[in-house]
Amino acid sequence: MAVHMTIGELARKAGINPSAIRYYESAGVLPLPERRNGRRRYDPDALYLLYAVAIAKQTGFTIAEMRALFSSGERNESPSLVWERFARKKLEEVDQFILRAEAMKALLEEGLRCGCLTIEECKILGVRPLTT
Question: Is 53 exposed, middle or buried (0-12, 13-18, 19+ CB in 10 A)?
C-alpha cells in the first residue's frame, strides 16, 4: 500500500505552499485528491505531477495550457508524445517573442544613438510610420 501524504507534507516535499496545490487543483491542473475524514490525501505520484507543473511553469506554459497538457495523457498517449506536441507549439511562440524582443532592443539602441535636440529632428520618428 502506498504511503499517502497530507497537503502540508506534499507541499514541503515539493518546496511550494499548500495554497499553490489548492490553486492547481481548483484550476484543473492537478486532479482532486482522495479525501479521508475530510482531509486531502495524496499518493506519491502527486509529487511528480508537481515537479511537472514546475517545469511547465518555467517554460512559460499558462494555466490553461498546463490543464490541457496534463489532461492529454489520459488519452493513452505517452508523456513524451504529449510533451512533444505542446513543446513544439510553445517553441513557435518563444521564437516569435524573441523576434519581437530583438526588434524592441534594436529600436531602443537606435534611440540611444539618435542625439536629436527636438522631437521634429528625431531620426527614429522621421522614418517610422505612426500606428494607431
Answer: buried
Give me the mean pLDDT over the 91-119 stretch: 90
- CB atoms near residue 123 (< 10 Å): 13
The tens digit of pLDDT for each residue in 27-39 reads: 999 999 999 988 9
Strand partners, 40: 35
Q: Is the pLDDT of residue 68 over 60?
A: yes
3-state secondary structure of 99: helix
Proportion of the chain in helix, strand, coil states, percent, rounded to 5: 65, 5, 25
The type of residue at 27 is A
- Burial degree of 122 (CB within 10 A; 0-12, 13-18, 19+): middle
* Reported pTM: 0.74
80's grid cell: 513524451
